[in-house]
Amino acid sequence: MGRMDARAFHRRVAELLDAGRAFGTARLVALEGSVPQAAGAAMIVHPDGGTEGTVGGGRLEAAAITDLLGLLERGERACVLERYTLSRNELGMYCAGRAQLLLETYPPPDELVIFGGGHVGAALCRLAREVGGFRITVVDDRAPYADPARHPGADRVVHTDPSYTEDLPVLGAHSYCVVVTRCHEVDRVLVGRLAALDLAYLGLIGSAAKWRQLRALLEREGLAPQRLDRVVCPIGLPLGPTKRPEEVALSILAQLVERRHAHARARSSQPEKPAVDA
User: pLDDT tens-digit profile of 115-161?
Assistant: First the structure.
């Protein structure tokens, strides 16, 4: 794909952000001497190495792609000004110019998936929207509880089937899953399925006694104990005895924010990769 003009570049960035996709961008912000592209040239790089636009092609572009993929692997937002010398010694190029590229990464957003749109689920959706930081999906098998009008703060509301398998979002390392359904049998099926995934968080509403019984059932069904160790139940920070949906939701959200900050600290502690050209 050739050079993207400014309008096309920013429109495409907005589309990817709205879709919750991970990607990186490189923009040529300054140059000295002979450089293949003019200032303002921009490129989008996807985690699989695919690109849109160009910052000049050849080894300069290849170096920028490599650096962006390295930043994307860290899984955190980054904004780095890199300097590249287009010489035979540095990049095997003969242009003899210098280029400054602004490299930015946009990791996938932290997604809060609330399984159950009842009183606690609705309250959690409202509070999470106020606090911010999560892309919110509410899932329920009952049409009145999967009504977008009931969850105006959600980015997406899913009316699924009774077994909670249809139209669900893709879940992964940035997914925070909260199970607050009305049915213990649905809880068992959902937790058994979700615990097998590598999630950022999996919490289940209920008492310690409920969890002991449910865990025993899931172990008998063959789920590995180390997977079940990841399940948080009772869910939420211990704010005190309460049955009010808003206070239960507050305790859950406080725990989600605590866990999200812990993940961010763990990512930021990873060793930096060396720059292309200091």
Answer: 999 999 999 999 999 998 899 999 999 999 999 999 999 999 999 99
Q: Which amino acid is at 101?
A: L
> Shortest CA distance to 178 belongs to which of 157, 163, 199, 149?
199
Those residues with Cβ within 8 angstroms of residue 185's Cβ, 6 or more apart along the chain or in another chain = none
User: Rounded to an integer, what distance in angstroms lies between the CA atom of residue 249 and that of residue 200?
Assistant: 18
Contact 41, 55 (CB under 8 A): yes
CA distance 180 to 214: 14
pTM of the predicted protein model: 0.75
Q: Angle of helix 245-268 relative to helix 119-131, nearest 10 degrees?
A: 50
Residues 6 or more apart whose CB falls under 8 angstroms from that of 206 comprise 187, 214, 233, 234, 235
H or E stretch at 255: helix 245-268
Model confidence pLDDT, tens digit, residues 62-106: 888 999 999 888 877 889 998 887 765 554 444 557 888 999 999
Distance of CA 148 to the CA centre of its chain: 22
99's CB contacts (< 8 A; 6+ apart) are 28, 30, 31, 32, 35, 55, 56, 60, 83, 84, 86
In whole angstroms, give the CA distance from residue 230 to residue 227. 6
- Domains parsed from the chain with CATH numbers: 6-108 (no CATH), 111-265 (3.40.50.720)
How far does CA 172 lie from the centroid of its chain? 8
Name the phi and psi angles at 12, rounded to 5.
-70, -40
